[in-house]
Amino acid sequence: MTDRLPAALEQIRADFLDLGIKDRLQLLLEFSNELPELPAQYADHPDLFERVEECQSPVFIFVEVDEARVVHLFAMAPKEAPTTRGFASILVQGLANLTVDEVLDVPDDFPNTIGLTEAVSPLRIRGMTALLGRTKRQIREKIAA
């Protein structure tokens, strides 16, 4: 599938692949309930967030790269959109505390490798792929600045 995934993403993938299709949807729902709240400094600044247009439901992301080149991904998605919210949560949790290089090395096809292609529509998988792609683009823009 992929050469080297960061440990958190590898564990998330393994957790999904260990389940049947119906249970994978339940796990995705659990992830949607675990999307971290925004820190106070960002909660009042929706203008910092970029909408991921490829997602069927409104999801917004913001990437911060700290002085140690550690990536922090923040996301907002409505509770009424559990699939989109679950995808955002997978990435927020799976990319937490990774370096710029580790995030940029995550294979672009990661969303296709976690066993959800049989459970959700290709359009939804495309949305998750776009979430990852926009995260990487924001990182590249921040480190180039």
Automatic annotation (TrEMBL):
Span of domain Fe-S metabolism associated: 22-137
InterPro entries (UniProt xref): Fe-S_metab-assoc_dom
Pfam families named among the record's database cross-references: SufE (PF02657)
Domain of life: Bacteria
Family in the record: Belongs to the SufE family.
Name assigned to this protein: SufE family protein
Organism: Glaciihabitans arcticus
